[in-house]
Amino acid sequence: MSVRVVLAAVAAAVLCALAAGPADAKRVRVFAVGPKIDPSWLQDRATFRAKLLGLTDARERPAAAAAGVPIQDGADDVASHLLGPADPARAVATARDLVTLPEDLGLLAAFTGVRGVTARSATDITTSIVGLLATYAPQAAYYQSRFPALAGRPFPPTRLLATALTDTFAHVAVETFAELADRSDAYLVAGVNMARDWRIVCVDRATYVPPPGGEPCAQEDPAAVALLRAPEDLTRTYAYEATTPEPVNMALVFDPDGRLISRQVKAYLTPVELPGSLDLAPGPVSGLRAVATPVGRLGVATSKDAWMPDVTAKLDQDRVEVLVQPEFFVGDTVRRDGPWAPDTIRASGYSDVLRHPSIETLVLPELTGNLFDFSADNQQAIMRKPRSRTEPGGALLGQDRMPGLVAVSPWVVPDPARPGEPLVERRARLGQAGEALLPGSGVRCASRTVPAPCENGHVEGVLFADVQVGDPPRLRPVPRRPRARGRVFTADRPLARAATAQRNVALAARGRTAWAVFEEQGGGRDQIALVRSTTEGASWSARVRPTGRPAGAVREWWPAVATGPDGTVWVAWQDDSSGTWRVYVSRSDDGGRRFGPPVAVGADAPAGAAQWRPAIAATGPGRAVVAWIDERGRFATEDRAQAQLWTARLQGGAVLDARRLDDAPAPVPLAASLDHAWAPTVAAAGDRVTVAWLDFRTYDWRTVARESADGGATFGPLRPVSRTAAEVEALDDTPRAAYPAGGGPVVIAHTRWEKELRGATVASRQHDVVAAAGDRLPVQVDGRGRTPASAFAPAIAAVPGGDVLVAFQDHADGPGDVRITRLTPGRTARRPVRVDDTGRAGTNQWRPAVAVTRRRVIVAWEDERDGPSQIYLTRAAPSRVR
Signal peptide position in this chain (predicted)? Predict the structure, then answer.
């Protein structure tokens, strides 16, 4: 069966699934376009353009062939599958197509034209860079005089070179991308590596004709035009001039008229992008935002960003619907030893769609092929959030079925070779084929247009699928299920049902009283509400607004709640009332009925410094400790904000001893400009306080902690909670801490992912939930062992007798379920218990919270069974959760 037939069948299945969706959602077609690197299309602007036009529109392939630019046999296209705008006269407002192209695609423009001849003929990257430095020397001198700081960058001077290439990148790549968007009447995302900002200079405004995209001439400067434009392009009367000396890796977003509407800058850089190699500038750690378009709220996580928990959590919080992951996944290729690259890819955008409620779709376009000693053989993929345990799903190379994977590109050999092919045999066969693709393999290809296991025989092509975006589903309450025989927990019930979406619930309890805080949308903004129960969760009060803000006036995110022995209730959150995200705390002295005015916990931070994701715990009567992420610091190596971990004591209405906790030890060199912190948690038992968080100082995400014995006035040294070996990449997430009742060391649960170094013979476990008591090794609590299935978002609470309960979000069957495990510190965890009562209905449940009253365990979570996400809860006697 041909690839085209397979994809058509997948598309038909997707359309059937979409037919059951909410009536107020919009059908959108998404495309992943993946060209293969080949010298034929890097000769000049015309061949670069011919390649992309030919790959996206089959009608252009004869012209591409005539120009010596081959398109791979069997490659699909975009043009023949476009839905087109609902109203062609208003394409920008009514577009129904999204076209995505890979990371680094614009970088290849450096090899084009007369000035790229030496670079194209080079046999290694060093010679190529030297050649470009020579041919772009006049442009480099021009920019060095404009931006003297470029002279102080590390050798080789690649940041200066990338700035000097601004006109080439823009004229060859950016204009081609704009033309593709305009021709397709589609929104388009494409990757470039170039100056973050530029302008057009022209010879004469009166005769200036705008290029594709319609950018105006900012200034008349004939001398600059003559210097910056390509020497073979003497009739061009304009040029692009960099206005910043900081080249970045970014995805450009174009509207259906070809206009550039957004620049999404990659925040976390790979080693090849750091000083000593490409020397790109990292983007702001909080710079990525949703791009609102008629084809959905788009979020772009370029390559490494898709693995970063802070990046994807912020995109989810900004209600991104469609996550675009542009890739040039170099270095991690399919081979017979070391990590299995598709296992690593599975842990990125695919896992993001599972774990984050708002992200419905993943589109992953991939640039394949060999460039000097760089090689990329990753598959393109499109995923929709799974809502059935039996729906068909594709698979990445060497993997079993992955629910929700609706389109995946073929590879150079069949996979599996036969039904039931054993994993070790299967991956060895695939690894041998992958090694044949690599530079210098010596395996010659019989044809340039037929993919095969030979040097640079990679696959190129186009994937597409239909997805839904737009308005959330209407509230359609589902009748409560009767409690099933033998069920540990009571029947699920909504906490405080609303017609709009709710999320991010947090719980606290003391005695028979419990408090819940959560977000719900109102007036187009997220608002924080609090409800309380004096019946151990059996009934709940009306909503109280603890923030003191006028309803709907500001956005309020990520609430946290704690209660002290005197009944004081503390609520912490972040909002943008000051024009910048800042963390605030309010206090109630009457059990949560009324709250005092909000108090800024980091009021001394400079203007514009954002603060994020607070956590709070009470330490005594009228006392608490709060921790948060604070961007007041700056890196010494790059003028960028650093996300730091800060904490403060609260005494009545006063904020005391605000300080940074993550200032030592020094980061490894790779993390010198990327050492951020994220996701704090605070636990307290009287004056014993633990603050734990995620830390990137080792150039991966590991859970660390500091402890205090005096109520947060002073803290001991930083200690690791993660025990992943130093040589293994770790991607922890969501630490949560609790002190066991009656004493004992703090227990910290977190999500763990480790790169499996034996991946060619052992499947990666994917994301596990683990818990560590004090200095002991973490214990897996999700009950999945080595099964390659993911669990996320743990919550933790102590129960009488010294045990703790860990609730988590489980995706072993595709859609998310909530489960809970009882753990005796220092021992193996018990078998997890299912919490929600949706059975095999296929709806998703996310991000549980757990609290323990005198006689009940209360678990709350986000639940989509009623349409828009609602906070649901259930209860059980602690003794029954075992």
Answer: 1-19
